[in-house]
Design a protein that fits this description.
This protein is α/β, with parallel strands linked by helices. It has a single domain, classed as P-loop containing nucleotide triphosphate hydrolases (Rossmann fold, 3-Layer(aba) Sandwich), CATH 3.40.50.300. The chain is about 45% helix and about 5% strand. The chain is globular and about 50 Å long.
Amino acid sequence: MISGPHRRVDGEMSTAQSNWSKPFRVLAQVGRVLTGRQMAGRNLTVFDDDVFIVSYPRSGNTWTRFLIGNLISQADPITFANIESQIPEIYFNPDRIMRRLPRPRILKSHECFQPRYKRVIYIVRDPRDVVVSNYHHNLKAGSIPDHYPMDEFVPRFLDAEFDKPFGSWADNVASWIYLREHDQGFLLLRYEGMKTNPTGELARIARFLERCSFRHVETGPERLARAIELSSPDRMRLLERQQAHKWVVTRNTRRDMPFVRTAVVGGWKSTLTPAAVARIEATWGELMARLGYELTTMRGDGASTRETAPTAAKPV
């Protein structure tokens, strides 16, 4: 058994090593910046005219990028082969590359509240559907094995085990809702509303873009219909089959599982067990109700707690 003094020496050596390593980490960081290899991400250079599409992972961000890109770019429809050059995610390119993009830029992010983002389109989705989509996404990525029990995945999802940089669903959503919901530079979209009324919601997005950094965005019936058709789940699935090897998100994942799945609302009802639903609602029910999501958990007296609260923010 190691005596107390030896443990103190070991601890002091560990502290010394840690202190010595800090300057090297700083130098490495400086080197990446000076050589242009610094990845964007949270180190992104943000311009005043940037517009960010933000959401918790698996909440409809990629579909929204397709919709917006296909609306504002008639000559070059969005595909998985060109999406990262048209409306890129901030995590895959060095900041020097991102700075060269034509302005105004539209960028994808999954960050919790970021005060540097002055113009934000935020997408929220029912967390019960988000957990199902995340489950299949992690199967595709190889993060969990086939046939992994959903009831074991749910508590890990609630703890943000698979998306720690972005917090939990509630951390992410609440950080934006509570700090920005009345801001004129903030547009809240519900995935469910976009599925029910894609034409109306896409028109809202266009009006928001015009108030931000973009000149007139054409929103005639034919223009909206074309953007929606080019962004349909069927077309996205076809493009994925043809281009999955070209897209950074799917390039190194399983080919026998799609990235674009059913894209339906309420799929959790046929997938999650009552115990899993109860656990999600017990953890996030207050925020879910505030956002207008119906709670279905039963109280101890057998009565339903089913309720729908007013939507969190008036649409911009």
